[in-house]
Amino acid sequence: MELKWIALISLIFQNSGLAIMMRYTFLLSMASLTPGTATEKPMLYLTSTAVLIAELIKLCLSFVIAFVLESPNYSVSAFLKVLYDEVVDSREWFSLLVPAILYTLQNSLQYYSMSCLSAPVFQVLYQMKIITTAVFSVLILSKSISYYQWLSIFALSLGVALVQLSQFQQSKEGGEEQSNSLLGLLSVMMGCITSGFAGVYFELVLKGSKVSLWIRNIQLAIIGIFCSSVSMRCPT
Question: The pTM is what?
Answer without folding.
Answer: 0.79
